[in-house]
User: Which sequence fits this backbone?
């Protein structure tokens, strides 16, 4: 049940972003396609949880809206490793980056400053300057 809600929320956010990009007041035509990237947490895109639900929503946006997609899986679960993959997506031209879960809170906080030209969607969390106490 949570996967369906996450999927619908992700799809809504993607559609809203695509709509806002399409409604910008650019005066010159562009052929750029919206590029949506995802960084997984410790799971895979087939984990029957946040990663899978997020990726399925992104892929649906690809099929229905024509966005370009890519996901990267970090080698570990540290803020530095998450930031590395966020940077790799940014370097590949992905300026809308989605991260599934609270584990990305401090990495997204840092990424907002490091990559101000990017937009971030953090599911199930809020950007934090300090890590949660367990």
Assistant:
């Amino acid at each position: 049940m949570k996967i369906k809600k996450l999927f619908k929320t992700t799809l809504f956010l993607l559609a809203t972003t695509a709509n806002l990009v399409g409604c910008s007041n650019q005066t010159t035509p562009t052929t750029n396609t919206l590029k949506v990237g995802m960084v997984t947490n410790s799971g895979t895109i087939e984990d029957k949880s946040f990663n899978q639900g997020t990726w399925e929503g992104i892929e649906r946006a690809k099929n229905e809206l024509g966005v370009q997609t890519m996901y990267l899986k970090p080698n570990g679960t540290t803020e530095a490793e998450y930031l590395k993959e966020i940077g790799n997506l940014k370097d590949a031209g992905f300026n809308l980056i989605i991260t599934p879960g609270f584990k990305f809170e401090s990495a997204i906080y840092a990424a907002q400053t490091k990559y101000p030209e990017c937009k971030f969607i953090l599911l199930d969390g809020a950007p934090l300057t300090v890590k949660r106490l367990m």
Observations:
- Residues 105 and 126 are 6 Å apart (CA to CA).
